[in-house]
Amino acid sequence: MMLPAYPKYKSSDVEWLGEVPRHWVVKRGRFCMDVNPRSQRLRDLGPDDEISFVPMEAIGECGGLRLEFTRAIADMGSGYTEFEDGDVIVAKITPCFENGKGALATNLLNRAAYGTTELHVLRAFPTLESRYLFYLTISQLFRSTGEGEMYGAGGQKRVPSEFCENFRVPLPSPSEQRTIADFLDRETARIDTLMAKEGMLIARLKEKRTALISRTVTHGLPPDAARAAGLEPHTKLKPSGIDWLGEVPESWTTIQFKRICRRVDVGIAEAATHAYCDDGVPIIRSTNVKPNRLDLTEVLRVEPWFAERNRSKKLHAGDLVTVRTGYPGTTAVIPPEFEGSQCFTLVMSTLKSLECPRFFSYFFNAEAGRVFFEMEGWGTAQTNISVPIVQRVPVVHPPPEEQRAIVDFLDCETAKIDQLLAKVTTAIECLREYRTTLITAAVTGTVDLRGVVA
Question: What are the Type I restriction modification DNA specificity domain coordinates in residue numbering (predicted)?
Answer without folding.
Answer: 109-191
